[in-house]
Each structure stands twice: as C-alpha cells, then as structure tokens.
Amino acid sequence: MSQVPDNAPGQNWNAADYARHADFVAELGGPVAELLAPRPGERILDLGCGDGSLTEIVARSGATVVGVDAAPDMIEAAKARGLDARLMDAHNLAFEHEFDAVFSNAAMHWMLNHEAVLASIHRALKPNGRFVAEFGGHGNVAAICTALLAALQARGISGKARFPWYFPAPEEYAEAMQTAGFTVDSIELIPRPTRLPTGMAGWLETFANPFLHGLDEEIREAVLNDALALLAPSLRDSHGNWTADYVRLRVSAHR
Ligand code: BEZ
C-alpha cells in the first residue's frame, strides 16, 4: 500500500449547497446506473452516495441498496429520503463479502488512496460480485485545475501540494483493479463537457475548497477571481453560460 493520504483537507460538504450548484451530477449518472443493471433482490453498495439522489433511483429496481459516504451532512440528507445510508470511509469499509455489486458515481476521484479503496471494495463483494463506477478520469477539469494552479503559483502557493483529486488514465486504473484482484470487463474514458447551472463561481465555491484551505479571505478572493478570469475565454460562452471540461472514467469489473 502506498503512503497516500486518504482525502485532501479543506473540503466541506453541505447537502443544500450541493443540490443548488451540482444537481446535474445525479441526473448525468444515468449511463453508469444502466451499466450496473441492478436486479430485484440484489444487495448493492453505493459508494460515496452523497445526498442519495442516484441511490434512490437504483433502489427503484427492487435491489436493496446501502449508501455510504464520509460526509455527515450528505448522510443526513440521504436518510431523509428514507434510504439506508451510513457514515463510512470508503478506504476502510466495514463489509465482508456481502454485496452483489458495488456502485459509485462521481465520488471516487475524491478518494486519494485508490489501492486501499479497491481493496475495500473487493472485500465488500461476494465472490463473482461486480464493481461498476464512473468518476473523473485523466484530463478531467484540466482547464479548471490549471487556472487554480496558476492563480496560486502567482502568489507563491503550491497548488500541487493541495491537489485534492485522483484522475487516472484507463491503463493505470485497469492495472490497479487487476492488482486488487478484479477482472476488468470494460473501461472507457469519456469526454463530457458539462453545463454548470450556477456558473464557474458556483462550481469553485462547491468543489475547490482544498485549494484555498487556510488562506486569508483576501487571498482566497484574489485566487478565485484570477481563476475565473483565466477560464472565461475558454469555458464561458457569449451568453455567459459556463461549461466545465469533464472527462469521465467509466469502469465495469468483477471479482
Ligand atoms: C467530477 O465529478 O469530475 C468532479 C467534481 C468535483 C470536483 C472534481 C471533479
């Protein structure tokens, strides 16, 4: 196992903010939920379930779905939907050989120790159980990352040391899955430009906290303003709409 920290510090999860700035996440989770193809009677784990909006859709299949997330506010929001949602760290799941499938949408790029996460998922699955996930892949939000790194660097701050995401290339992640004991059924890198309902400022406010963690308010503001100015020519259209340069890694595997 590598000595990678599990999560970058500074990210705060608030279910109401998430619903306002990022409700598209569950809406765009349709294709990976289809790839999962849940069946009635199956027991499925939703890893990084957030507020449970996609968990709820998967549960409509008649499968029994357990959601786990490391953010207390998200777990409360998922429970409020009537879901079985539990506060748990994906790097160390408290499950042994009990799920027919582990499913995850738009969460695994926050989990920095991918070896520990894959081992944890493998342990949670029954023999022959499947692992179906989609998260940020190589090149995901590259322009946004570069703008934040440049704005920080201009003030002598290392953005690299604060970088909160894991965006692997397909070859790298396939190898990691095989090492963890999975057989890879499919792995695809999918560019998916994504319209941001509350613009880039809303996106940065929701997701870029680790880059700004511990900085004085004045510096935070200046970094955000510089990042927005750097991004506008490429990601804002003539009507003022912002589109993020999302790239998904979609995987399906079994143990
Ligand atoms: C994503 O879904 O790719 C993503 C969301 C927030 C921050 C970084 C990546």
Strand order, sheet with most strands: 3-2-1-4-5-9-6
Q: How would you describe the shape?
A: globular
Largest sheet: 7 strands, mixed
Helix content: 25-40%
**SSE run:** HHHEHEHEEHEHHEEHHHEE
Beta-strand segment tally: 9
Low-confidence segments: none
**Which radius of gyration do the C-alpha atoms yield?**
18 Å
Secondary-structure-derived class: alpha/beta
Strand content: 15-25%
Report the span from N to C terminus: 19 Å
Number of helices: 11
* Distinct bound molecules: benzoic acid
**Average pLDDT for all residues:** 95
How are the elements arranged and paired?
Layout: H1 15-21, H2 24-27, H3 30-36, E1 43-47, H4 53-59, E2 64-69, H5 72-80, E3 84-87, E4 99-105, H6 114-124, E5 125-136, H7 142-153, H8 170-179, E6 183-191, E7 194-195, H9 199-207, H10 209-212, H11 217-235, E8 243-244, E9 247-254
Parallel strand pairs: 1-2, 1-4, 2-3, 4-5
Antiparallel strand pairs: 5-9, 6-9, 7-8
Describe the overall structure.
The protein has helices at residues 15-21, 24-27, 30-36, 53-59, 72-80, 114-124, 142-153, 170-179, 199-207, 209-212, 217-235; strands spanning 43-47, 64-69, 84-87, 99-105, 125-136, 183-191, 194-195, 243-244, 247-254. It is an alpha/beta fold. The strands form two sheets. Strands 3-2-1-4-5-9-6 form a seven-stranded mixed sheet, sandwiched between helices. Strands 7-8 form a two-stranded antiparallel ribbon. Strand 4, helix 6 and strand 5 (125-136) form a beta-alpha-beta unit. Helix 7 packs across helix 11. The model has no long low-confidence stretch (mean pLDDT 95). The protein binds benzoic acid (BEZ). Benzoic acid is lined by residues 106, 109, 136, 140-141, 165, 207, 246.
